Amino acid sequence: MNSPATVPEPAPPAPSLPLYKRILRYPATYLLGSAVLLALDVVTGPFLQFPILFVFPVALAAWYVGPRTAYGLALVLPVGRFVIAWLIDQPSPVAYMVVNALVRIAVLGLIAYLVRRIVSHAHQLEGRINSLVTICAWSRTVEYEGEWLSFEEYLRRRFEVKVTHGISPDQATRLRVSPDALRSGVARPCAPGCEDQAQRASPPVG
Predict the structure, then answer these.
(1) If you ran DSSP here, which 8-state letter would residue 143 be given?
(2) Which DSSP symbol is given to 88?
(3) What are the tens digits of pLDDT across the range 145-183?
(4) Cα–Cα distance measured from residue 181 to residue 108, given in angstroms and rounded to the nearest whole number
């Protein structure tokens, strides 16, 4: 009589990101925020300026989106501020405004670069932490995804490794198992003097 086919259990759903993280992962979020900052710069005039706030969209874009968006904002925002100062405010000569724009581009680009370096190191550290294995000092079980598994089960789940069992020649000598049992898989009491045979049966190291 055929046994009923077993249905594999569905994989647990991946944990969803918080809403604010999902919003911060869209480049459109930073384009909209940059447009708001430049619009405020236009409305408030030359007496109340917002270039210092350009740091926030650049840094957040470097952390959550990627270097292209961050470097793009580091270029677009100072250029937008230069256009506003040149066409609307005109508080200083054009040469000074060009220097200010270049300084802002350099500073914002440096911020984007440093944030990306921090992100890279954070990902490397996270990978190292995930590579650590916690083993119970008493039961020798391994913690994996919230469960305590035998070492064999841990290898099977994480690395899809099939495990077989045997006995090493050293342990065979200690337990007084005859060398023939190593080959046949049937453990028999070791006769006197078989320890030397077990050591000779062990493969050379190196």
Answers:
(1) E
(2) I
(3) 888 998 888 888 877 888 888 888 888 787 776 556 555
(4) 72
Alpha helices in the chain (DSSP H): 19-24, 27-44, 55-64, 67-84, 94-131, 151-159, 169-174, 179-184, 194-201
What is the distance between the alpha carbons of residues 12 and 33, in angstroms, rounded to a whole number? 36
Query: Can you tell me which residue has the tokens 């049966």?
Result: 201
Q: Which residue has the tokens 């270039």?
A: 51
Q: Token digits for 134?
A: 């916690």
Integer Cα distance of 66 and 20 in angstroms: 17
State the amino acid at position 172 in one-letter form.
Answer: A
0.85 cut: is pTM over it?
no
Identify whether the C-beta of residue 75 lies closer than 8 Å to the C-beta of residue 94: no
Decide if 115 contacts 70 (C-beta within 8 A).
yes
